[in-house]
Specification:
Length: 333
């Protein structure tokens, strides 16, 4: 792995790392020439760190809701933008036009299925006190929190447990039945970016190691310790981790691609690559029913729809308001 190239390609995920500054945790992922959300400054130790960002704990505990003009729609897709901004709501394939907004949120999303459309509810992680569950299409119904740090990802298993990654220290907090204060699980990761369960209840997470290279880890179901998983191919920059019904997938932000793996022991073997042609920086992706949604943070931001697992060029481009898309999820009433 070329770690120098890895550090240079901060891309949209550098935007995800900006909230680590809220917790006063220095990062060494520097801003690339095309980045718009992160302004690097030099710390005393000579490393590049992200500029200061508003304290997310000051945001409202529940988001402000902008009324949805298509309340009778059954299925909805969400493009979740920069921390402290908003989530844009769509009802594809009925339309590719934005139909609603959830304000004062940002970050990543997840729901109560491993892939496809969530059933009646979904989650947005937007701050330490803003791990919020919504009733589809946009009614907040419950909020969880972590003791410290910055939530960076979320995933649910088939039993309803919620796993929330912590960007600040690489840990994962598991909320049994999506309730309570959660159990903190340390990982080998230096920074945790994305997580996802497979169909056996094994929890996978990716991010960067202490040497700033891609790293994938697994918490096998019933175990108490994460283990490092070695991939058979290089991954340039960590992206979404999600089960697709057959394989464990990892999105590579630096390659505009998704990798499909079989996992045995501590080895992930590449079984196929899905190209996301035309995308520049898919931060979070969400595999739905025959399609995959991409929150593309580059070039002003957009939401893209690709066939899955065919990939190729986008079959739809969402039209609406975007402010550095970082997350996406889909759910239905």
């Amino acid at each position: 792995m070329n770690t120098t190239g890895f550090v240079k390609h901060a891309g949209a995920l550098a935007a995800l790392t900006i909230c680590s500054a809220c917790a006063a945790v220095p990062l060494s992922l520097s801003k690339g020439q095309d980045d718009v959300a992160v302004a690097p400054s030099t710390a005393a130790n000579g490393r590049l760190v992200t500029a200061a960002y508003p304290n997310l704990s000051m945001l409202p505990r529940y988001a402000t809701i902008v009324p949805d003009r298509h309340a009778k729609s059954k299925a909805f897709e969400y493009i979740i933008n920069d921390y402290g901004s908003y989530a844009s709501i769509f009802d594809y394939p009925k339309s590719d036009q934005q139909i609603g907004t959830i304000t004062n949120v940002g970050g990543q999303g997840c729901t109560n299925v491993l892939y496809g459309y969530g059933r009646k509810t979904f989650w947005i992680v937007a701050g330490a006190n803003q791990i919020t569950e919504y009733e589809v299409p946009q009614k907040p119904i419950k909020t969880l929190s972590i003791a410290s740090g910055q939530p960076s990802s979320c995933a649910m298993d088939t039993s309803g447990d919620l796993a929330v990654g912590n960007l600040a220290n690489g840990s994962v907090v598991i909320f049994t039945n999506a309730t309570g204060s959660g159990t903190v699980m340390t990982t080998p990761l230096f920074r945790e970016y994305f997580d996802g369960y497979d169909n056996h209840g094994n929890l996978f997470a990716d991010g960067i190691s202490s040497s700033y290279s891609f790293e994938l880890v697994e918490l096998p179901k019933g175990h108490s310790k994460f283990q490092i998983i070695t991939t058979s191919n290089p991954v340039f920059f960590p992206g979404s981790v999600q089960w697709d019904g057959t394989y464990l997938t990892v999105t590579d932000q630096g390659a505009a691609a998704m990798y499909r793996y079989t996992v045995s022991g501590t080895k992930a073997t590449l079984e196929g690559t899905i190209s996301l042609l035309g995308s520049v920086d898919c931060a979070q992706t969400w595999i739905a029913t025959g399609v995959v949604f991409c929150a593309d943070a580059a070039n002003g931001g957009s939401g893209l729809v690709f066939k899955y697992p065919a990939g190729g060029s986008a079959v739809a481009v969402f039209t609406g308001n975007f402010d550095l898309p970082l997350g996406t999820v889909a759910a239905e009433k």
